[in-house]
Amino acid sequence: MSEIKNLAPKAIWHNFYLLTQVPRPSGHLEKIQKFLLDWAKERNIEAFQDKAGNIIMRKPATPGMEDRKIVTMQGHMDMVPQKAKDSKHDFLNDPIETWIDGEWVKTKGTTLGADDGMAVAAIMAVMEDDTIPHGPIEGFITADEETTMYGVDHMDTDTLTGEILLNLDDETEGEMIIGSAGGVNQTARMEYQEVDVDPEDAAVSVNIHGLLGGHSGLEINLGRANANKLMARLVQDAIANYAARLATWYGGNMRNAIPNEAEVVLTLPKENVEAFKEECVAEWRDTFKAEYGFVEEKLDVEVFDHELPSKLVPEEIQDNLVDAIYGCHNGVFRFIPETPHIVETSSNLAIIEIGGGKVFFKILIRSSRDSMKECLAETLGSIFSMADLKVELDGDYPAWQPNMKSEIVELMRKIYKELFGNDNNVEVIHAGLECGIIGSKYPKMDMVSFGPTLRSPHTANERCHIPSVDKYWVFLKEILAQTPKK
Questions:
Q1: Can you give the pLDDT at residue 338?
Q2: How does the average pLDDT of the chain come out, rounded?
Q3: Which domains does the chain have, with CATH numbers?
Q4: Is 370 a catalytic residue?
Q5: Peptidase M20 dimerisation domain spans which residues (predicted)?
Q6: pLDDT at res. 339
Q7: Is 145 a catalytic residue?
């Protein structure tokens, strides 16, 4: 449905609507890159794509403001491709279907892409509007932020010209972010020789679903269940008490999303099937609902008869893998001692793939303190090594350390108070923003992050608060109008 393009401020919502029509999941950005370059060319806006796949747009100062500091407006073009279990959406080809529910823009069972389409739409709006006073400006629209931060990690150090960076990737209107966590990807893998199944056994599939999932940084401390961790408890019970054997395990699909679903295929003696269904599955369903029902209202555990697989995980390897999953830390590891309401270090057991002779565990570790990031990586690596898994780290990115004397932050605090009559909150968050990497390449750049209000990013419940977008737009335009002089 296209009514979102008529929402106010139309300058942003029309462009956001255009973005919903272009597939742009992480790792598949050719269509959105072409769209942005064609869009800029049609409007005679200077634009180019760098070697890392980022799109840069530039616009000269309005007359009389040539002496202002250059402002770089930054956001990322890719979106997390999560969808509801019953959705048939194809993220590589289908547009995002949106609808308006009161004060919120929502979708038909998929991620919305307001993370970070709202930033890209705002950059487009500024670039095409000649009525906004501003100094020299550039738009920096980055590639694959949601997976590896590839765009900023592989950009050249002479790509940007800005002295001020406005990162437009925050998700709560009324706050400004001045620091964020760093992170690293951890992968544990192995190969094994499959063994034959007992042809006298039966097979079942067990599915844990209906979980909220969510952002593995911003929402890691909200008490949400991890489908892989729940499944480990059930599978261990099935092996110990019902003579079950593991054939396959698939849970989660994005490192930075809390896994909201997991499915295993088990074999077990035929005489144990009914007891497994009526005792094991039923008891764990009740246990999980008792533990998480207040948060996970739609949590469910289902079991179905399944075609007997031909191969299984060897018993010793199976037991080691289940022990490693059970023992793997997931969630908050430590809060910041000086500010104990903010998460310092966490991990997300995001993806498990077991089957066909291969094993992959994929985890995202976050921390605002490098030593604790290393500590947690070593902690998890020790567990996986004991299960004979090969452990690798990649995609390491630094934390963004706060600048308590930031000129742009102080100016923005003043502007916000003048515009809206109240103070905005200055925060450090437990999420990975590109500012850490950008700051390492441009150490003199003054940086701040803000944006409209989004909720449940990285899930099929992602939504954008309509009134907050108007305040976001008014605020951004006034910041550009009052940019400090060089």
A1: 86
A2: 96
A3: 4-180+400-482 (3.40.630.10), 183-397 (3.30.70.360)
A4: no
A5: 210-291
A6: 83
A7: yes
